[in-house]
Each structure stands twice: as C-alpha cells, then as structure tokens.
Amino acid sequence: MDLNPAQIRKDLAYFGEFGKKGIGYDVAYLIEKIRQILNLDKQNPVVLVGAGNLGRALSNYNVYLSDQMKIVAVFDASPGKIGQTINNLQVKPMEDLIPTVRKLGVRIGIITVPASEAQNVANQFIEAGVEAILNFAPIIIKVPPEVRVHNADFTADLQSLAYYLVEKNTEA
C-alpha cells in the first residue's frame, strides 16, 4: 500500500487525538483505540440462519474468526437439518431464533436461506433486536433505517473482477 502519513494522521484525527505533535503515537494506546473504534474490544456474537451448503461453509469458517466475532448459534427450518451438528453447533429450529438472539444479546445475523425465505428471516432478526445483517440471499431485504444490511453478492463481485481485468488490459 502506498499510504501517505499525513492522510493517516488526518484519518485518525476524525476519531480523536491519539498522538502528540513532535513526539508521535503511543503504539499500544493507539492499537487499543483502533480496536475500540472497530468494535473489536467486545464480544460480538453472531447467529446464522440457513444450514445448507453456504451456511455450513460459513459455520466451519467460524474457527478462523476472531475471539470477538463468533457464530454462536445456527438455525434452519428444515426438519432434516435440525439437530445436526456443524462445527460444534447444533442446528436449532426457527422457533428458537428470537428467544436465543435475545438471551445471547446477539446484534449481528447472517442470512443464507433461499430468496423466498430471506425477508421472513430478516423480520425475525429485527423483532429479536439484531442491528446488522449479512445477507447472502439473492434478494434485497427491507429493513428499518436503524438496521444495517450488507448484501453479499458473488455474481456482482465476480463481474467487478472481470471488469478489473478488462481495465487492466486496456491500460497496458
């Protein structure tokens, strides 16, 4: 990365004063403050709805997540998946979603269900108090303004990469 020190100082200043002019930064203090800014200084339990192939893959990825960000429960509507274990998490029925989210204080949810079920899952997340949703369903879900949604779209990401390759070749 070609980073300009002045720009980094300006970016950090957006969040407050961290250094002393002419002296620099207390690195340990700066690291702790950045962890706080990124909300990495607290536990952020995550729930996942959809124990199909993608849900299983994400649950298995759980071991690589930080200690502060872990999938703590997996849910599915399919009777055949309920009770199965994925990476030490037993798949729970959908009727347990709202009470579990509330009990564990979960604020982040992941949706890996078919498009036809995604809005229903989002509605249950909202009712339970989830404030941020990572949506892998191929549909735009409707949420109140105070709920943040990130739509993961593999097709759009691949198209973006393909465009990058075209641009890279035309610049050469």
Keywords:
two-stranded antiparallel sheet; Rossmann fold; seven-stranded mixed beta sheet; 172 residues; alpha/beta; 2 domains; single chain
Structural class: alpha/beta
CATH topology of the largest domain: Rossmann fold
| CATH architecture group name of the largest domain | 3-Layer(aba) Sandwich
Number of helical regions:
6
Count of spatially separate domains: 2
What is the terminal-to-terminal distance? 21 Å
How many beta-strand segments? Answer: 9
Helix content: 40-55%
State which percent range the strand residues make up: 15-25%
The whole-angstrom Rg is: 20 Å
Note the overall shape: globular
Mean pLDDT: 88
Largest sheet features: 7 strands, mixed
Name of the CATH class of the largest domain: Alpha Beta
Describe the protein in words.
With 172 residues, the chain is α/β, with parallel strands linked by helices. The chain folds into two domains: 5-37, no CATH class; 44-156, NAD(P)-binding Rossmann-like Domain (Rossmann fold), CATH 3.40.50. The protein is 40% helix and 22% strand. The protein has six helices and nine strands. It has helices at 5-13, 27-37, 53-61, 97-104, 115-128, 154-171, and strands spanning 19-20, 24-25, 44-49, 69-76, 85-86, 89-93, 108-111, 132-135, 148-151. The protein has a seven-stranded mixed beta sheet. Strands 1-2 form a two-stranded antiparallel sheet. Strand 3 (44-49), helix 3 and strand 4 (69-76) form a beta-alpha-beta unit. The protein is globular and about 65 Å long. The mean pLDDT is 88.
